[in-house]
Design brief:
homodimer; 255 residues; alpha/beta; binds adenosine-5'-triphosphate; binds magnesium ion
């Protein structure tokens, strides 16, 4: 069984896509078999690995609406050692289409058809607690929460935690918080240090030791359609995401 | 008739809330009568002006579902010279509830009941092109687009522009782009300069001359529940938003 992780936070711009793309590529570099699932109509994760979202034959939306299988829609990115289940604007239609009963388990069922092909599946979520994010939480064993160390992001985490608890109490009893990842971290910034201390006080070991610093190479890499370990492997951003992959692999599997 | 502006961009974390709160307070400082509408379930704009979203008697969701009027739900913030129509988690229910036919004009009708009380109404939108954002675009005469000068934000602007065109072609023929505001701008960053040049090439005069720099005081102010002109009036962030208010007031009214 692959480890399936939802990379989620309804606060916008906290580094969900950057984390999904770069952690996927870093895990791929450690010879794990990885599927990156783009569940956001913005299609940022798709573009971030060099796939043109305007030229898709099938997308994740087709899979969620039952018009294609994951095997048909996924695209191999051998240069980055991962496959991607791409997204485009159509994904908005999937959000509406899934509202019916039982729609919450659609992604989980679809990913089960390719479970034997992967060691990790990472799901990049949109910035909302919509039906798409619920699908991702229902399909996952863990939630990775990227978190900018600023007030609005900290303020929103309780809503996310209570959504996770609701999903655990209903459709996915095994759902855990895999970890909280501090992103775009600037140690010279008092606010960031204060928020970071609050996170550790509240969440303890659930806060990853790895911290991703603010590093412009992470913002530049997507304009070349490359994960940062391909774009600039010696950058602090690349090193941080490789360290995160190492930290995740080094953890004892949660029984 | 007040000038009603939707502050919108489906890309997350580009400074929609920071712009809504601080432009509203800056316009208030010029003795204009201002209503700040929080249309995001995160309730960030509500907290940003010091109103506890956990203690609301009525919220914007009640207004949209017809359970309260704007006059009942709005809260005066005299120290910041503005009123706020607050939001909390319930707003997610409004997004679902408005899906029915004719739901797109609900906010427009609600704001018309208080039109005589204000010179400006600013609507802080959530990071999605959902029914709530459609309501804001249907109710507004202009769209203010905060924009981080980075690849994913630039990449997403075409989807927003086409949504604006669709709304203009159907339910709101008068809808214009009020302007594109460059936020969190770091002039030392090549990527920011390149994206900024592309914006000016594409949008010309629609790009505000005022640029909001990255300034930590803007990120600190919300943790005190204050707009930045109250928290640190001499900061570069405060000066930028006062300049933006001036630039907007100085423009000839679009006939
Ligand atoms: N550590 C970092 N250093 C510098 N820039 C970063 C870093 N992480 C992300 N960025 C940039 O910040 C912006 C926001 O990141 P990203 O798009 O990954 O966030 P997101 O949570 O996926 O946003 P959304 O809510 O829109 O999905 C992007 O332009 C990205 O390139
Ligand atoms: N010019 C700036 N300088 C420094 N920090 C800023 C600036 N503008 C916004 N911020 C901070 O960046 C983060 C994102 O800004 P904000 O929350 O206003 O964006 P948003 O577009 O409203 O996000 P969302 O998509 O979640 O609604 C916040 O923590 C905010 O305090
Ligand atoms: Mg994203
Ligand atoms: Mg916001």
């Amino acid at each position: 069984m692959p480890k399936i992780l939802a990379v989620a936070n309804q606060k916008g711009g906290v580094g969900k896509t950057t984390t999904s793309v770069n952690l996927a590529a870093s895990l791929g570099a450690t010879k794990r078999r990885v599927l990156l699932v783009d569940l956001d109509a913005q299609g940022n994760a798709t573009m971030g690995v060099g796939v043109d979202k305007g030229e898709l034959e099938f997308s994740g939306c087709d899979v969620l609406l039952g018009d294609a299988t994951v095997a048909q829609a996924r695209i191999a990115c051998p240069e980055y050692k991962l496959d991607v289940l791409p997204a485009n604007d159509d994904m908005t239609a999937a959000d509406v289409g899934l509202k019916g009963s039982g729609g919450q388990l659609t992604l989980k069922k679809a990913l089960a058809t390719v479970a034997d092909d992967y060691d990790f599946i990472l799901i990049d979520c949109p910035p909302s607690l919509s039906m798409l994010t619920v699908n991702a939480l229902a399909a996952s064993s863990g939630v990775l929460i990227p978190m900018q160390c600023e007030y609005y992001a900290l303020e929103g985490i309780s809503a996310l935690v209570s959504t996770i608890q609701q999903i655990r109490g209903s459709i996915n009893p095994g759902l855990q918080i895999e970890g909280i990842l501090r992103t775009m971290y600037d140690p010279r910034n008092n606010l960031a240090r204060q928020v970071s201390e609050e996170l550790i006080a509240h969440f303890g070991d659930k806060v990853f030791r790895t911290i991703v610093p603010r590093n412009v190479r992470l913002a530049e890499a997507p304009s070349y359609g490359q994960p940062v370990i391909a774009y600039d492997p010696r950058s602090t951003g690349a090193i941080a995401y490789l360290a995160l992959a190492g930290e995740m692999l080094g953890r004892k599997p949660v029984k």
